[in-house]
Design brief:
The protein is mainly β. The chain contains three helices and 16 strands.
Length: 213
């Protein structure tokens, strides 16, 4: 079922890596800049209040910050019982009714950009100063993330306003997902994420942080 494949990736928390790889990602971080307010303890992350492909009430919060790495706990309401059943068998996931909770997602957020440490494949996701064509390494993979567009005017609708964004694409080709596109803004951080699937469909989720750079 495509919805199952979608949720497994959308939840972000199910592309898990080993503990050794986490340590390597932290020590090998190439993201500079000052600590962003976005990564501080207590900052919340939400998405659209509308249901998207059977998923709603997506929210997360920073539960700890150590060495520049923010630890997140997140949850979502999942309408499909078969999806809930499948997710309950994944590491770091707990299920109560149709609420799925995941712990241990780690990101580094600075004034320079955003880097995944644990959850999404480790490596820089967005570097605000990048130019179209720039590529970021992914730890343990030959695949790279690539900047495919960068606004020169306010052309992206977000949170009731128009903003500039940098778009970074990752051709993941895994679990029915063809690619992931990350949308970032130098002030608001990551503002959206899009998953394109092998069947030609896609899901795009807005992202709202309670803090900004």
């Amino acid at each position: 079922m495509k919805n199952l494949l979608k949720l497994v990736v959308i939840s972000s928390l199910f592309l898990l890596t080993s503990c050794d790889l986490i340590e390597e990602a932290i020590t090998g971080s190439k993201l500079g800049g000052e600590q962003s307010s976005i990564g501080q303890v207590g900052v919340t992350v939400t998405s659209s209040s509308a249901q998207i492909n059977g998923v709603s009430n997506i929210q997360a919060s920073v539960t700890s910050l150590s060495g520049g790495v923010s630890n997140y706990t997140g949850s979502a309401t999942v309408a499909n019982s078969s999806i809930v059943s499948t997710l309950s068998n994944l590491p770091g996931v707990s299920v109560s009714g149709n609420t799925v909770t995941v712990t241990g997602i780690k990101f580094k957020s600075t004034t320079e950009g955003i880097e995944s440490i644990y959850g999404f494949d480790p490596g820089i996701i967005i570097k605000y100063s990048s130019s179209v064509g720039d590529k970021y390494d992914i730890l343990g993979s030959s695949t790279k993330r690539e900047v495919i567009a960068k606004s020169t005017s306010d052309d992206f609708s977000w949170g009731g306003m128009m903003i500039k964004v940098i778009k970074v694409e990752e051709n993941i080709n895994r679990g029915g997902v063809k690619k992931i596109t990350y949308f970032g803004n130098h002030k608001w951080g990551m503002v959206a994420i899009r998953f394109d699937f092998d069947d030609g469909s896609y899901s795009q989720f807005p992202i709202y942080n309670s803090a900004n750079n």
